[in-house]
Amino acid sequence: MQSITIATRASQLALWQANYIKTKIQKLYPDIEVKLNKIVSKGDKILDKPLALIGGKGHFTKELEDAMLNGEANMAVHSLKDVPTYIPDGLKLAAVTKRKDQRDIFVSHKYKNLKSLPKGATVGTTSLRRQMQLSKLRPDIKTKELRGNINTRLKKLAMGQYDAIVLAYIGLKRLDLLKNIPYAKKFKLDDMIPPMGQASLGIEIIDGDKKIEQIVLSLNDENSYICAKLERDFIDRIQAGCSAPVACHAKISDDIVDMEVMIGLPNGENIIYHKATALKSNCENLGLQLASDCILSGAKEVLKKAEQITQKQYRPERL
User: Fold this and answer.
1) Domains of the chain in sequence order
2) Catalytic residue of the set 31, 44, 48, 82
3) How much is the pTM?
4) 8 Å CB contact between 300 and 244
């Protein structure tokens, strides 16, 4: 019997995702034994400051990639939104699973939705992208850093540390956590544009391992892969990290690809927004085109300013 080892983060959601892929593989290839190599990533260890201040990239992927390069795993399962556009030599992003609901969701123990929050209310989020769009929608509320896994974030909400928090809907759905939340309201995609790759899983393998690649390709969804590539092309061209205040979303309907992107400051100012459409058969440069449009509109300068603001906001005061 052939054996395959999947590298995965050790969080509850990551294990759900890895087991989901494990089950898919075992159903398609019943003679293959699938094991999990559970790893604690750098992003899971450092919880006392925002991801934007940790430095470097791949906070949730590096240790999993190292496991593959060291022969300790045949593949890694990631939340695609956490995968940097740079893939280390010797590895390959081989498949993207079918996208599920990409929307973010507002959750609270006191208020029904974002509109019902009183002036000055505190909303928790770990994402500069969400901060940007929340500030654009409700400039009168405050956003506060929120780190930790999903259960930790929900516990902080229940303890009254926040009036509301914003999370990815798909994580709450997969872990069946919505039933314990009094108020939950999904955002419209027009109001809260998702990040690159949200609600898809990315499967990374050792480049050149044809047997593993054949297995993984059976899990790939063509349209989701195309959309992910366009979004990753955009992020790569503007040189934005996973935690930058950047939103991008591509979708395919009836062989038409629509893509929209947004860049701005975390406080909702200096917003740059562009969108474009192409035929699916001729869309390969859509992400790069939108990146060029944004750069001409000043995206590089806005991203640099956003980084400076974030560094200044969280820099310890001198004694």
Assistant:
1) 3-98+200-220 (3.40.190.10), 104-186 (3.40.190.10), 246-314 (3.30.160.40)
2) 82
3) 0.91
4) no
